[in-house]
Design goal:
InterPro entries: Met_Sox_Rdtase_MsrB_dom, MsrB_Met_sulfoxide_reductase, Mss4-like_sf. 3% of the residues lie in helices and 34% in strands. With 115 residues, it is mainly β. The longest helix has 4 residues.
Amino acid sequence: MSFCSFFGGEIFQNHFEPGIYVCAKCGYELFSSRSKYAHSSPWPAFTETIHADSVAKRPEYNRPGALKVSCGRCGNGLGHEFLNDGPKQGQSRFIFSSSLKFIPKGKESSACQGH
């Protein structure tokens, strides 16, 4: 299931079912639904990754305060991290597009086997 629809916005904008969000390309675990929060952007917003190496970051030169984010395993482009723009002071906000898939709680191990 693709995480984002380009014809009408993010299909999980109000989706808070327990589970994890993985890279759509390689299946690597990126974010827990526990770190997802409601945001005015049409894309999903998270405050932290599952693993320290879930994502790789590099400066976004045309956007001060933003980092370009890719999958820490396969390098698939995921979106951006906006520094100090999270739900709490000093917290960053990760936002992403169609590069993610949602895996419901209890289905994580079978969905990520072989990765």
